[in-house]
Amino acid sequence: MRYAVALALLVLAGCSWSDVLVAEIKSVPPERSFGYRQGYEAGCKSGIAEKGGIGFDKPRRTRDERRIETEVDYGKGWVEGDTACATRYAGLKAPYYPPGN
Fold first, then answer.
1. Tens digit of each residue's pLDDT (9 = 90 or more) over 64-75
2. Domain extent for 83
3. In 10 A of CB 26, how many CB atoms?
């Protein structure tokens, strides 16, 4: 429910994927490691990119293969971020507000 409310507020605010990403990163529990957080962020960007972006703003798919192979926390964060954001933001099209409007 918390995510649904946050998502609705972001859509109404005319957000970009970076706004969504900031909200997603803040939702990661503070006890998670820095590597996990970095993996989650990269995975979330990838999950949004897989689903076509939000509005007219689209991130690039990001996956650091070396870190996934060598850092367990980064790899776990990437998989969980990718899955969560690809699922959560599938088909979302936020309103687009040009800069200055």
1. 899 999 999 999
2. 2-88
3. 9
